[in-house]
Protein 1
Amino acid sequence: MNKSKANSKRIVDLLINNAIIIILLAMVVFVGITKDNFVSQGNFVNLSMNTAVRFIVAVGVSGCLIVKGTDLSAGRIVGMGACIAGTLLQRVDASNKFFPNLGEVNMLLVLLLIIVICGIAGLVNGIIIAYLKVPPFIATLGMQTVVYGICLVYTGASPLGSFRSDYTAIGTQKILWGWLPYLVIFALIIGVAMWFLYNMCRHGKYMYAIGGNEVSAEVSGVNVKKTLIIIYTLAAALYGIAGFLLAAKSGGATVNSGDGYELEAIAACTIGGVSTSGGVGKISGILLGVLVFELLKTSLQFLGVGSDYTYIVQGVVIVFAVALDIRKYIAKK
Amino acid sequence: MAEYRLEMLGISKSFPGVKALDNVSLKVRPGTVHALMGENGAGKSTLMKCLFGIYKMDEGEVYLDGEKVNILNADDALHKGVAMVHQELQPIPQRSIGENIFCGRYPMKKLLGFMPVVDHKKMYEDAAELLKEVRLDFDPKAKLGTLSVSQMQSVEIAKAVSMNAKVVIMDEPTSSLTENEVEALFTIINDLRDKGVSIIYISHKMDEILRISDEVTIMRDGQYIGTWESKNLTTDMIITQMVGRELTEIYPKKENTPGEVVLEVEHFSSIHPRSFQDCSFKLRKGEILGLGGLVGAQRTELVEAIFGMRQIVEGEITYKGKKLKIKRPADAIKSGIGLITEDRRGSGIFGVLSIADNVSVASLNQYLKMGFVLNHKKIEDLVKDNVDKLSIKTPSSRTQIQSLSGGNQQKVIIARWLANNPDVLIMDEPTRGIDVGAKYEIYCIMAELAKQGKSIIMISSEMAELIGMSDRIVVMCNGRITGEVSGEEATQENIMSLATKFN
């Protein structure tokens, strides 16, 4: 009697804790059955490409969240990556070229440059958070504005387009009879590399330790400051890569590229089980979170919900996801 | 008028596994200072928390002026005339003195005849009046944060006076005061007594107790020992009553023989003048060194400074004949020193992480391939070895540590340090909050380590444990080392007299 009660309580808990995933998947199934084009190669590939870019951003943010921090500068750093790529990878003969006399630059070199420049923004975030003890919320909010300003100054707010075809190919081409976009391959490589870092390397163990209990970590000899700086730097480097891919995918870049990605990424991480109370989070969970969130957006689109309303739904989902996460944490006390 | 202002009769209170109060009584006469004394963990604070409604007592009755009362919470206690001047004050330093006194019960007035607003004029006038009563010459509009600790305490007392408190509890009120400030406090206490207020005064300082109190009640191990008139007491009598218990607990046999000096700490002084000052001691190879003293003696602060967690203005560590510079815990660990902290939850365990991660976190550097990839096979073996060696009871090494009992959590943390194989292990209250069986296992581990030639510094507030386990005991009081006794000579009396030797 008591046991069955405990069991049913456990089931109810499981349902509530995963409420968002369950509700959203139910909605996806509903949309899939009622709308014709939802289950199609086109939609699938589109979804996977959207997921790929956002997954890279979410994996970056996840490290910050696991150490009980956050990174609100993510979206703007994605934008900076997109703008740098946009200015350097235009067609040689494009009209209104940003650097009129620029020849054909090596694409790998551009990607490296983006990683370094965006990484510096993350390094500054990390130093401010680790050494000056500024709350991550404030430090990265400041960086968000600074990076946006830098992008405005750099591009003069002019939109960038007319990219080289070898560059846009990265963001649009697919292999395996049109099923596997290059973007997904990028995301997979990054996902595997980050999984390795989180699970097989000392850095990962230290990251989870800091998130679990920062004081204990320090007492156990963990170099907390260094680990935090690596996390924020690496996160920003990933945003840069995401920006590079985003511009290739959309064939254009503006200072507003990537705007708002940080909130989507944080929401996706939380839906995927990265706890805002620290020390918990898996790469597989993050992938699930991003996928669920993208499915939500696509489903709403198919249901004919206007994009203005979509913002409202997304906002509600984000807060709801964090509330459910906190609920788990409180229940454990 | 009733003979007693406050009577607490037959109070009992249990926590899981511990009987914190067992049929304790306390009777306080009107207009007297009543000292409440006892060792660490004797139950003084628990008794006061029961009186204050912070804890619910299991049994017992409370009478105020002969009338039975049932105090529900701290707010209710204040309204019934019982006030507490806390050991650690919790004021709002950014706000004015007046606001701190009247917080939560501001005098109100009606603006334009209908809008309720705070009557600041009345509040500050009343506050000024109250400050005069506690002889504090301060503008009530001054920020509380600009006052010294003793002045803040006076403000707390003024607050109690403003609530017409009949009983004021003072828990270690002089622990952070200078001599002059103590004198000022005593003047206020005498004023209050003359007005008929009863004061319950908790302190370890014998000379103060004998000077200020009218009566003394002594507790030991959650039990009421007796009440005496202060004028008939001496320091030695109080100590005898505080510690007079039989030592019955069993400790593993000592087979260690302390060798040469491994660690020498010299002139350690905290950056905080009221924390540890000028502390020096030596630790030998294969020795268990006990660090004794009362709560607040700054023992934890001292060992945390040795480990690089706190800052010092002066002090040197000589380790195996070499001078050591320790800036961070990582430096200490590299040299072969480990610390099991007092606050297991706050600075010991990683609650959400697995036992395996909790054990291996301090020794990952030894298991690296190519500088950053971990050798998982070796780490698993390491974890398994130590989990087995310490017989940690857990379904698997992947279990979250927070689901284990306190004793098993502590063993995991010991395993963390054993995995790192330090030569000096500092253990701060290693058996606090742990059941008897696990305690004995931890004692055996300590004895075994000492036998292997490791050196241990153990802080313990349990007299029996300190005497039972240590080869030598260094005693601290008020941030200073007041003496040293060998394991054979150690008695509860001589340790307690060193632990209360304020100078």
Protein 2
Amino acid sequence: MTELSNPQPVAPPRNQWLDVWDQFKTHRGALWGGIIFVIIIAGVYLGPLIWRVDPQFLPQGRDFINLRDMRPIWVGLFDSSAKVSWAHPLGTDNLGRDTLARLMMGGRVSIAVGLTAMLLALFLGTLVGVVAGYVRKMDGPLMRLTDLFLALPLLPLILVASLLFREPLSASFGPEGGVFILIVVLIGITSWMPTARIVRGDVLALKEREFVLAAQSIGTSGSKLIMRHVLPNVLSPIMVSATLGIASAIITESALSFLGFGFPPDFPTWGRLLNDGVDRVVSFPERSILPGIMISLTVLSVNYLGDGLRDALDPRIRGR
Amino acid sequence: MLTFTIRRLILAVPTLLFISLVIFLLLELAPGDPMAQVPLTVPAEVKEQMRLALGLGEPMYIRFWKWIVQFFWIEPQVLIDHYFGTTFAEGKLRVISWQTRSPVMDIVIQRLPQTLWVVGTAYVVGILIALPIGIYSAYRQYSWFDQAGTFVSMIGFSVPPFFSGVLVIVIFSVWLGWFPSIYDTTLVVDSWESFKRQLQQMIMPVMVLALQITAQISRFMRASMLDNLNQDYVRTARAKGLGERVVVMVHVLRNSMIPVVTVIALGVPSIFGGAIITEQVFKVNGIGQLLITAIQANDLPMVQTLTFIFAVLIVLFNLVADVLYGLLDPRIRYD
């Protein structure tokens, strides 16, 4: 009888995240989504270092007449009478402010709102989900609360609340800071419910697993158990809902700004710029279309990113 | 099933009461003054009397109770009077809008047909487009049609209605001049000519809303078809020699429709909410636009009633979805 061979691993164990990255790479849409999202973020945050034009600069006197209502550079290709200049490649608005610089500034605000609102929603959702899944007594009340939030008409309530709390917050944090906090908090507390439900379901399933029992039997305290053993295992659904959360937060913020319930007029976000352009969309279609394309492109790339992450983080799909 | 429905209906009452309380308390915090539009020449004591006439002098709980009574007791009576010519509600105080000083429900009833026409048509059109797309892309998974369908629905998810609306206005009414950019609600359809005009002005808002609905429902349809296509009963059906058409369109489709039908039911209220933006873009004076103007004008009874109507829709269609699920899928037993 031959000796049973004792197989030794030939390669060192692979990091889990390398597997995830390998799977992620095969999803071409997700890869491109990620690349475009990074380019957009770099463009709006690092762009002002290269394109040093003040987005709030208002030309005075004769300059005002000369510099206002400029068209983007490509309009000159088919309309020789159009007012174009390489100094303002995307044109200027009706007050002579540079569109490219304003798009960058608007993008910074829109993406910052999206990221912070997503973080807040994620924090609330994970907290509610973990507590509801882990503490049996809290499960009933917290899930009823989630159902109740899901039954609220969210967009009308956000509209109402954004008008109600604008004044007091603006008074204490300044007009821009107050509105920023207001919108982030409003979006955050109205979009945590899907995350909470997913996390609760996963925690309920994990709680019955052996490794949790093992951790409990060596005397791990409740909070340690959650932080060390439960949370890392629910990380993948949280990451997927994080990417989708950025997308919906950016859309909600733009919708608020579009309806006139968002940031003040001299403080551009993409939604605000789009709304400002609507009145003169016949003569200057680019003023609405450029911010609109930026919103759609960002959201599209984030959605593809989330799609790829969902596949890459799912061990049942990975490796196929 | 009946007991389940009744139990859910009874449970919906405290939910709705609580939601109405939440909305009421939120509006109670409103710093806006309904007397802000009154000229400064009006003396302060007259203003105070006007305020009392609006019912603002009462404590909070009395006003909440009054609103509840007006909405749940008096308004249904008005409706009965309207249909049967009775006089139950005569002389009783209804929910009055501060903006127009007319009953809120009358205005809502005036505005509702516009919203229902646009949103309803868009929903039906969206579903009719989405179902075949979902079925075919699941049947030919990873084909070019499936890839294109995925891309189109990604666009439908990502392009917000206020951008796609502006975009179709620029393309179809500014450059091509095919459709009017503003929805004319005074148009009376009584001839072939006016019917054509109505159709023309409806195309763009319906297109914008239908794109979003199609994106969502075709994804659900595809996923649900994919779940069922690999099941054993499909192999059995093929093995006993049934045609491919019968297998897919009868066996698989019927089972795949179960979750899709509930998603369709669940989507109805959110479409009403999303239509707020589309109505604003195309200047349709439906209930979404009514809500926006009411919020801007500090018309609290109107905002309260409209938001509550949205909440009722959500709770109602959640219930409908649950009941439909139980009716369609015999494996699901609620009792």
